[in-house]
């Protein structure tokens, strides 16, 4: 692996008595794409949120591009500028056009002048294939297009790494492919990416590594071939069998647990 772009050491996070992350160790190299999979409530979102300090870790260290972001003296805003994040919900401003949605954070956070912000907005809309929607309002776009705008908005900030938290889980199935295609393009361009997803085809074809989390620990970490095709741990096998064939899992367990692309308990984000 090239030098780690993201390094997570013995990361713990508790919410009150709820010990959610129980010692996560993970390294993600420059240009590497790591997919994080695991059952709802296993701490996937909390892990991503600790990387860009949307949550404050209880213990442990996180480094991004060699800078310790968990250092109490760190400039949090400077750290966040280096990390783009895309959520399940797109969080676009409804009263602003697509271009204005991309320009606003550049001007507010990066203090870019208007002409530069507009130029960089246009470049990134082009990149996600939505140049023709520059003057549209979010409500006139499909969910998939809105998510691509959200990705372009993150890219316009010039991040070194991108975090994705179930970016396609809120989309109708026919809209998922366009968003995944944009993510695949980013991966091909060499972006360092940490992607929480249940899209196994994407994980197999695009990820360099797949990490399976359960109960706040990393259970398995390897190539997609190792983790998805030849899981070593029973917990991984069980999760994958439920994901790939939810109907069978219901029969096996006699429950009506909903498992699939969606993440019913993960709706906070
Ligand atoms: N802000 C929060 N306050 C309290 N509990 C939280 C908060 N965020 C997450 N949790 C809890 O942490 C656990 C893991 O949640 P999460 O990281 O969202 O899991 P996942 O993304 O794998 O579904 C859950 O029990 C959830 O209720
Ligand atoms: Mg989640």
Automatic annotation (TrEMBL):
Q: What is its EC number?
A: 7.4.2.1
Query: What keywords tag this UniProt record?
Result: Amino-acid transport, ATP-binding, Cell membrane, Membrane, Nucleotide-binding, Transport
- Membrane topology, as annotated: Peripheral membrane protein
Checking PROSITE patterns in the record gives:
ABC_TRANSPORTER_1, ABC_TRANSPORTER_2
* Location(s) in or outside the cell: Cell membrane
Family classification:
Belongs to the ABC transporter superfamily.
Q: Name it.
A: ABC-type polar-amino-acid transporter
């Amino acid at each position: 692996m090239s030098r780690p772009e993201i390094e997570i050491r013995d990361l713990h996070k508790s919410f009150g008595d709820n010990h959610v992350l129980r010692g996560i160790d993970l390294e993600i190299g420059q240009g590497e794409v790591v997919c994080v999979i695991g059952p709802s409530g296993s701490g996937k979102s909390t892990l991503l949120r600790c990387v860009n300090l949307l949550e404050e870790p209880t213990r442990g260290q996180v480094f991004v591009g060699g800078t310790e972001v968990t250092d109490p003296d760190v400039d949090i805003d400077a750290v966040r500028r280096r990390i783009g994040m895309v959520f399940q919900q797109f969080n676009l401003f409804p009263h602003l056009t697509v271009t204005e949605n991309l320009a606003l954070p550049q001007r507010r956070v990066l203090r870019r002048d208007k002409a530069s912000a507009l130029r960089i907005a246009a470049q990134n809309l082009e990149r996600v294939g939505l140049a023709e929607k520059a003057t549209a309002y979010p409500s006139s776009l499909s969910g998939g297009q809105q998510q691509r705008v959200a990705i372009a908005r993150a890219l316009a900030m010039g991040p070194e790494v991108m975090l994705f938290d179930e970016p396609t889980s809120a989309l109708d199935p026919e809209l998922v492919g366009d968003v995944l295609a944009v993510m695949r393009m980013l991966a091909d361009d060499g972006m360092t990416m940490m992607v929480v997803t249940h899209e196994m085809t994407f994980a197999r074809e695009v990820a360099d590594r797949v990490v399976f989390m359960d109960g706040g620990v990393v259970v398995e970490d390897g190539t997609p071939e190792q983790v998805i095709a030849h899981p070593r741990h029973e917990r991984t096998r069980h999760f994958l069998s439920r994901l790939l064939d939810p109907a069978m899992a219901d029969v096996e367990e006699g429950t009506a647990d909903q498992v699939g692309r969606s993440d019913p308990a993960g709706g906070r984000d």
